[in-house]
Amino acid sequence: MRAVRFHEHGGPDVLTVDDVDEPEPGHGEVVVEVGAAGVNPVDTYFREGAYPVPSLPFVPGSDLAGTVVSVGDDVERFSLGDRVFGTGLGNGRSGTYAEQVAAPVDSLAHLSDDAELTDAAALALVGTTAWRALVHHAGVEPAERVLVHGGSGGVGHVAVQLARAMGARPLATASPGHHDALRDLGAESAFDYRRDDLAAAISEAGAPDVVLDTHMDRYLQLNANVAADGARIVGIGNDTAEGGFDDIGVTKSKELRYQFMSMFNTPDPSAVLAHLNELLVRGDVEPVVHDTYALEEADDAQRAVLNDSFLGKLVLVP
Ligand SMILES: NC(=O)c1ccc[n+]([C@@H]2O[C@H](COP(=O)([O-])OP(=O)(O)OC[C@H]3O[C@@H](n4cnc5c(N)ncnc54)[C@H](OP(=O)(O)O)[C@@H]3O)[C@@H](O)[C@H]2O)c1
């Protein structure tokens, strides 16, 4: 079968499509024929060597959606022919940019027949991230204001919809070209993150009770200044907080709660994915697939996911 691999760390050019052996399911695993694999920024961190891989060559990719073609020992939840989607692969084990993948069952959930494989692959990692941030960590309540930085991104555009589905009031920062689409997805207001009066504009819309932050070092102080008393601030971004706070006092007087998280630590990803499947088939969360790529175009997809401004997700279709 074909799989995208890198034999050394480096830029997108190190990605090659290789012929490799078909995987066998281990204990507690199934093999999935991949219909679609999501493309995420984290895939590029493993490729670059910023995040460790067990050995080289290595297949990147966290997300998949497809059909079970082989079932390992001690697997009761899944059978041959089941439609499934999953996330969390490509971290400590081989990833999903391949025609077939052996996946542990706790990284998978059943996918309803009327859901598209590309949508499911687009939703898995970003939906799990948004769920862990807004449900597990922030405990969003109806009518609360939820500020999502990078609202047009893979995580952001799903977080806006999830907040809306929870009865909350999403606000988003994004490039102006994506503001109309974000309002269509449920954002009450969208703000250009480049404007000089960003904090004043957010405050005018109302102090957020929750912030989902993809760029913590840029917005540490802004979040503290605009947040409501007792706000919960969940940081998922990869930036280093070089600046820190100019005024730590506001964080204390408002008794803010900061939470940093990694999607890979989600305790029961399969349960979260099962909820996401429900939201997907009800139409409460509709991932936007901006573009699809063949395995041979994985390098272009990884360039685009870091460099291009688009709303939604990129997906590989083997
Ligand atoms: N901790 C975790 O578990 C976890 C999980 C998933 C993702 N992440 C990280 O979270 C970040 C976002 O992931 P993603 O999948 O959503 O990435 P993505 O699809 O590439 O989206 C990035 C978004 O950031 C926006 N952006 C760029 N500069 C910005 C700024 N200065 N202020 C506000 N927004 C800005 C972009 O907006 P425009 O295109 O409109 O300019 C784009 O919408 C990445 O760093 C990723 O590695 C962490």
Task: Please describe what this structure looks like.
The chain is 30% helix and 23% strand. The protein folds into two domains: 2-111 and 288-316, Medium-chain alcohol dehydrogenases, catalytic domain (Quinone Oxidoreductase, Chain A, domain 1, Alpha-Beta Complex); 126-263, NAD(P)-binding Rossmann-like Domain (Rossmann fold, 3-Layer(aba) Sandwich), CATH 3.40.50. The chain contains nine helices and 15 strands. The chain starts with a strand and ends with a strand. The relative contact order is 0.17. It has helices spanning 41-48, 117-137, 154-165, 179-184, 198-205, 216-226, 249-253, 269-282, 298-307; strands at 2-6, 15-19, 29-39, 64-71, 83-86, 100-104, 108-110, 145-148, 169-173, 189-191, 210-213, 232-235, 257-260, 289-293, 313-316. With 318 residues, the chain is of the alpha/beta class. Strands 3, 4, 5, 6, 7, 14 and 15 form a seven-stranded mixed beta sheet that branches. Strands 10-9-8-11-12-13 form a six-stranded parallel beta sheet, with helices on both faces. The longest helix is centred in the middle third of the chain and has 21 residues, at 117-137. The radius of gyration is 20 Å and the shape is globular. The chain binds NADP nicotinamide-adenine-dinucleotide phosphate (NAP). NADP nicotinamide-adenine-dinucleotide phosphate binds next to helix 1, helix 2 and helix 3.
Summed up:
The chain is of the alpha/beta class and 318 residues long.
For the structure shown, list the relevant keywords.
9 helices, binds NADP nicotinamide-adenine-dinucleotide phosphate, alpha/beta, Quinone Oxidoreductase, Chain A, domain 1, 7-stranded mixed β-sheet, Rossmann fold, 15 strands, 6-stranded parallel β-sheet, 318 residues
